[in-house]
Design a protein that fits this description.
Elements lengths: L2 H22 L8 H14 L5 H10 L1 H12 L9 H15 L5 E6 L5 H12 L6 E7 L2 H9 L1 E3 L3 H10 L10 E4 L2 E4 L7 E5 L11 E5 L9 H12 L2 E8 L15 E5 L4 E4 L2
Parallel strand pairs: 1-2, 1-7, 2-6, 7-8
Antiparallel strand pairs: 3-5, 4-5, 8-10, 9-10
The protein binds S-adenosylmethionine (SAM).
Length: about 280
């Protein structure tokens, strides 16, 4: 693409972002542009659209088309026990402290199709905490929330999930958590009996409860530093005194204003605890 064409493309994407906010109420203005441009280009190619004009017509005339555009922009890639060291750290450094509380509230923000949520629930069950824990599983995308509720994951990820489970300190046979069914694995629904699934947009929605632990991994990487700052402040306002914030390897509090309110619990896995 020539420089001039690139400028036109970028202006058209800005227009698209504004119009989506007006028509559908999704505000993508705080998403990193590099990622948005890449994803819009990919969507144009995959849908055989010839121009941004065609994309706009399709997206604004058909809500189902917008739905598939939303899937592209929000990046739902996930897996069970992703970065097992992170789950091992939760098990060793966070759950023993939470186990001293009579009731535990956890927010899994940007839970996608539920693999992270089920991994967390398995950890909580093995540490004897699941019964007294309420988890709020939220995502901007209602379609992935629906899938998360079903707890059915493709069997072709089984090898990775199994090794992730044991590397994260798994204490049982991983096979005891699911049944195989036509190329899928259906996980025990009892794992999510205390889970509330809820659409929540980190860019625009406000705080809705106070949590002992907030997990938000592989979500903020798609946001600009301004939007990240806003979300950190939302998390801070959604935590109990001495609450934990678990961001995982890819995101960090260190560059942000919010870091002043937290101590580092695990530097590598970016797990923090509120100072007061
Ligand atoms: C790459 S997935 C990460 C899933 C899981 N946390 C993990 O680490 O495996 C990112 C998720 O963030 C969600 N997301 C993107 N923008 C969001 C927003 N503004 N508010 C809430 N969730 C958002 C996407 O829909 C997607 O499900």
């Amino acid at each position: 693409m020539k420089l001039e064409d690139n400028n036109i493309f970028e202006q058209e994407v800005e227009g698209l972002i504004r119009d989506i906010n007006t028509s559908y109420g999704y505000d993508f203005s705080g998403y990193s542009r590099a990622s948005i441009y890449r994803r819009v280009k990919r969507f144009l190619t995959n849908k055989n659209l010839n121009s941004m004009r065609d994309l706009k017509i399709a997206v604004f005339s058909d809500p189902f088309y917008f739905e598939s555009f939303l899937q592209e922009i929000t990046v739902n890639v996930t897996e069970m026990f992703r970065d097992p060291a992170f789950f091992l750290s939760l098990r060793k450094n966070v759950l023993p402290i939470l186990s001293t509380y009579p009731h535990i509230k956890i927010w899994d923000a940007g839970c996608s199709t539920g693999e992270e949520l089920f991994s967390l629930a398995i950890l909580l069950q093995e540490e004897g905490l699941l019964e007294r824990t309420r988890i709020y599983a939220t995502d901007i995308n209602q379609k992935v929330l629906k899938k998360a509720k079903e707890g059915i994951f493709p069997a072709n990820q089984l090898a990775a999930s199994t090794s992730g489970y044991y590397a994260s300190g798994g204490k049982k046979e991983f096979t005891s958590y699911y049944i195989s069914n036509y190329g899928n694995l259906k996980f025990n629904s009892s794992l999510i009996k205390n889970v509330i699934f809820y659409p929540h947009n980190l860019a625009t929605d406000s705080s809705f409860n106070e949590f002992h632990l907030i997990l938000c991994r592989n979500v903020l990487i798609y946001f600009t530093s301004e939007l990240q700052e806003k979300v950190f402040s939302l998390f801070n306002g959604s935590q109990v005194r001495l609450g934990y914030l678990a961001l995982g390897k890819k995101e960090t509090l260190s560059m942000s204003e919010a870091s002043k309110s937290y101590n580092i619990i695990d530097k590598e896995n970016r797990i923090y605890r509120k100072t007061s």
